[in-house]
Amino acid sequence: MLTIKNLHAQVEDTPILKGLNLEIGPGEVHAIMGPNGSGKSTLASVLAGREDYEVTAGSVDFDGTDLLDLDASDRAREGLFLAFQYPVEIPGVSNLNFMKAAINAKREHQGLEAISAKDFLALVKEKSALVELSGRLRDRSVNEGFSGGEKKRNEIFQMAMLEPKFAVLDETDSGLDIDALRIVSEGVNAMRDAGRSFLVITHYQRLLDHIVPDHVHVLSDGQIVKSGPKELALELEAKGYDWVKEEIA
Amino acid sequence: MANDGEDKILEEVTGKAYEFGFTTDIDSDKAPAGLNEDIIRLISTKKNEPEWLLEWRLKAFDTWQAMVEPEWPHLQYEKPDFQAISYYSAPKQKKELASMDEVDPELRKTMEKLGISLEEQKRLSGVAVDFVMDSVSVATSFKDKLAELGIIFCSMSEAVQEHPELVKKYIGSVVPVRDNYYAALNSAVFTDGSFCYIPKGVKCPMELSTYFRINESGTGQFERTLVIADESSYVSYLEGCTAPQRDENQLHAAVVELVALDDAEIKYSTVQNWYPGDEEGKGGVYNFVTKRGICHTRSKISWTQVETGSAVTWKYPSCVLKGDDSVGEFYSVAVTNNMQQADTGTKMIHLGKRTRSTIISKGISAGKSQNSYRGLVQIMPNADRARNFSQCDSLLMTDRCGAHTFPYIETKNPTAQVEHEATTSKIGEDQIFYCLQRGIDEEQAISLIVNGYAKDVLNKLPMEFAVEAQKLLAISLEGSVG
Fold it and tell me: Are B213 and B155 in contact (CB under 8 A)?
């Protein structure tokens, strides 16, 4: 599904990713953990195609296409989704209109007609149940006045609506209380299937109790320094990141 | 009697023309450049106007001569040479083009993006149209229906001939001749415009649009519009259109007067898209407009405007809330891009008791443009328990543009309640990236964000106008984030 080879990226001349390699197969869930400043969010931004991040070397193959060759909106239309760490507010734009625009952009890309009002509403009903998103939140402006937890639920709702092939969850657990964490995780788990892969970026092991990964990677100073099964997350939680650093040294 | 009067005027006019040195070699359809009493007499004669109107014009001219062009707006432009302008030309025959191929491709592209039908594109660009039957027949049935209800909707010139008593009673009653420099100039030299009268108790069943009288006369450089809603009547009036309008006249100084008598309501919506000039701002229209309405008891006037065009805009649609319990509203979206400058806002003058006003202004600045909101809320001593709410937001698209807010509040009554809120924000790259990540392209992202920002105002526009205005905002701001 996704093959990252020797990826180097920088922001304003400061190198952040320094030769990152990662292979994610179809249907797999990979978790990336690492201390602050290790490059986790940079990886998410680079994959999503944010312009401030300059890729200086390496390649990313996304289901047979050169991901780095596509601009951000084409990556999304090809099935890449990023659940933002800090979802932005767009005042005056209703959540549903926003979703309709997104779905139709994707459908147009696939050579399909715009979605009918009836199908759209049915889809909204189905997917909002998944993350217990109330009608009140659906009808409001995008993320405007949402609590932290509501914003994250809205991200997962959007992911469910867009049915991506590959989703990056960037610290989706930050700022969530235990109930919201459960709702968000259940939403993600309901979407796991053989054709869809996830990259879960997180600071804490807690999220991985709910979304159980197939592989866990430790990111440090722009490189993946250790990989292992899901138990690695528990070990990290117990021993801290310094343990990994010492091990490498 | 009327005939006697007309004859007399005709006699005077024909007798005097020579006296003032008009010779036959003057092109009868176009006055020489320059402004003086003779020119004003010529305009009045050409239009076969009653003497009181000529006198009114001459008085306005005197007033104007004693005034100076205002310096206070936050605008920089070369002051027009008022003696270099020709103040009268007969309703001009637009140069007809043989086909759409002759139309400026940029203009065509924009019209296509706006979703304007081919027929309409031809009409707007002055291409000869074989079949205008559709719009003609629509216009005709439209007129019949209005006539049945006693609604008068015609050109100002026609109104002067057919309904002089109404014109005489109300012209200059809301915007006095000496109100300001451009209003005085307009009063002296206006050539045409629209006139509308809604009789007592009549609710005008359709949006009145200048579109329907476009075939009768083109819009002039100095337009004069007068809308009168008699007691308990209602009218919604649309002015302008979203299609880009080019004009050989650089200076436009229109006057619009609205009169809402007791319990009447006037909704006046404008979409202005005059040519803004090129990227350096060359060749754009200067738009100096005076718009004001007077509200009598329990009446209501709403101004809604979407301003995207012109190189320089100077415009403050205002309400004089004279009657008790009357209501004034101002909803505005003003977009400036490239080198455009806008100084626009409103005045709400509260005279009557329990008068209420609402101001919602949304400025959007892009390129190197300058966008100013200038508003005055004035509560006079008798306006017990008057209320005002103002909200002035500015959205910046680049680091090189400017947004300015000049709110003035004067309250002379301690029971008044005045609220003012203002925000300035820059369009977020984060917002755009969020849209891109959902598969929405940049153009549509900007359109979504900007229309969301302006939603409170766009919602006030009549439905079909609102849809066009949304597209217009997006087009005006294309590629403008930086």
Answer: yes
B188 Cβ contact list (under 8 Å, min separation 6): B35, B40, B57, B58, B60, B61, B64
Instruction: Among B428, B430, B455, select the one facing A92 at the smallest CB separation.
Output: B455
**Could you give the domains of chain A?**
2-248 (3.40.50.300)
Contact status of A97 with chain B (Cβ, < 8 Å): yes
B428 closest CA partner among B463, B396, B454, B403: B396
Residues in Cβ contact with B199 at an 8 Å cutoff, skipping those fewer than 6 apart = B149, B150, B151, B230, B233
Concatenate the DSSP letters of all residues of B173-228 into one string.
TSS-TTS-HHHHHHHHH--B-EEEEE-TT-B-SS-EEGGGGTTT----SSBEEEEE
Residues of B with Cβ-Cβ distance to A83 under 8 angstroms:
none
Instruction: Give the closest-approach CA distance of B408 to chain A in angstroms.
Output: 27
Pairing outcome for strands B152-155 and A223-228: unpaired
Summarize the confidence of residues A121-126 as an average pLDDT. 94
Given a contact cutoff of 8 angstroms between Cβ atoms, the answer to whether B355 and B366 are in contact is no
Contact of B79 with chain A, judged by CB distance below 8 Å, is answered with: no
**CB B326, CB B354: distance < 8 Å:** no
* For chain B, the helix, strand and coil percentages under 3-state DSSP, each to the nearest 5: 30, 30, 40
Looking at beta carbons, which residues of chain A come within 8 Å of B456?
92
**Each residue's pLDDT tens digit, B312-370:** 888 999 999 999 999 999 999 998 888 888 888 999 999 999 999 999 999 998 888 88
Q: How many CB pairs under 8 A join A and B?
A: 74
Give the nearest partner residue to A50 out of B433, B439, B455, using CB atoms: B433
DSSP one-letter code for B86: B
Return d(Cα B478, Cα B3) in angstroms, integer.
Answer: 57
DSSP SS3 for B388? strand
So what's the pLDDT on residue B465?
78
CB atoms within 10 A of CB A36: 8
Chain B touched by A90 (CB under 8 Å):
yes
* Cβ-proximal residues to B46 (8 Å cutoff; 6+ apart), any chain: B88, B90
Residue of A nearest to B444 (CA): A101
Name the residue in chain B with its Cα closest to that of A49.
B437
Determine contact: B482 vs chain A, CB below 8 A.
no
A55 in contact with B at a CB cutoff of 8 Å? no
Buried b (16+ CB within 10 A) or exposed e, B183-218: bbbbbbbbbbbbbbbbbeebebeebbbbbbbeeebe
Predicted confidence (pLDDT) at residue B132 exceeds the cutoff of 50: no
Give the separation between CA B315 and CA B374, rounded to whole angstroms. Answer: 9
Chain A residues with CB-CB distance to B333 below 8 A: none
Are the CB atoms for B153 and B227 separated by under 8 Å?
no
**Among candidate residues A198, A209, A247, the one with its CA nearest the CA of residue A227:** A247
Residue with the two structure tokens 């008798």: B382
Print burial letters for A104-135: b (CB count within 10 Å at least 16), e (below 16). Answer: bbbeeeeeeeebeeeebeebbeebbebbebee
Give which of A105, A183, A84, A92 is closest to A142, Cα–Cα: A92
Residue B455 Cα, gap to closest chain A Cα (Å): 6
Is residue B19 scored above 60 in pLDDT?
A: no
Residue B121, pLDDT score = 63
Q: What is the pTM of this model?
A: 0.79
Residue with tokens 């994959």: A47
How far CA B473 is from CA of B55, B242, B443, in Å, comes to: 43, 10, 11
